[in-house]
Amino acid sequence: EPQWSSDEKLCGILINGDVLFFENANFEKVAFKFNSIKVGKFRISPAPAPYNIIFYLPGKTGQPSLTRLFEYPKFEQTQALANKSFFQADRVDIFWNNKGTSALILTSMDIDKTGASYYGKQSLHYINVSGETALVALSDEGPIHAVEWSPKNNEFCVIYGFMPCKATLFNLKCESVFEFGKKHRNSIYYNPQGHIMLLGGFGNLRGGIELWDMTKRKMIATAEAADTTLLQWSPDGEHFMTATTAPRLRMANGFKIWHYT
Hints:
With 261 residues, this protein is mostly beta strands. The protein folds into 2 domains: 1-135, YVTN repeat-like/Quinoprotein amine dehydrogenase (Methylamine Dehydrogenase, Chain H); 138-260, Methylamine Dehydrogenase, Chain H (7 Propeller). Helices cover 0% and strands 49% of the residues. It has no helices and 23 strands. The strands form 6 sheets. A 4-stranded antiparallel beta sheet has the order 1-2-3-4, with no helix packed on it. Strands 5-6-7-8 form a 4-stranded antiparallel beta sheet, with no helix packed on it. A 4-stranded antiparallel beta sheet has the order 9-10-11-12, with no helix packed on it. Strand 1 (3-4) and strand 2 form a beta hairpin.
């Protein structure tokens, strides 16, 4: 499916391993084309121009996969702002921060060939426009349930490990700066201002909610919101909504508005 830049002036479409870019909604003419061996995925940064774009190039058997970061439209191989290679990836998810200066790359392998995990194998990598790359060191084995950037762009949170699982806050050097303890949770929601974070356990978990003051690094409140299929913060950063909706759940459909306290 097509991807748009935040100002909607740039559109990219992945077709047969090539990415075609169109400008200003003119689809009669390809403005630029990213040619490589074969692109598996790409992500345009959410920030305004100049647009930064990450391309994921899957490796052939025995070869590493590669992610490359470019500033549009400088797509010559030598013009890459950053490169990160890794083995053991069937697929990747790319998470940009709001500024479009740093991104996290979640690599997943459906089958762990070492046999250590039924869940396959996952790892998290950091890349930025200055050319810095790193492996995010997670202190527990197990699946990665959620990854979320702070709207302040200076830190990110990861939920990982077997249940009850860890939640850890990292800075831009990929250093652990705070541990939220072990609980049954799988979701992260920052309020729009970035000073309150909600950790939740939804889906096959019981709906536990924790609200954290991210300035003081203290828990503000806990709540239970069983059978939640949707959660969203209000733009005021003080209220959030939980809802139970079909077709995920056909019983007890409805919504609730909460205050963070």
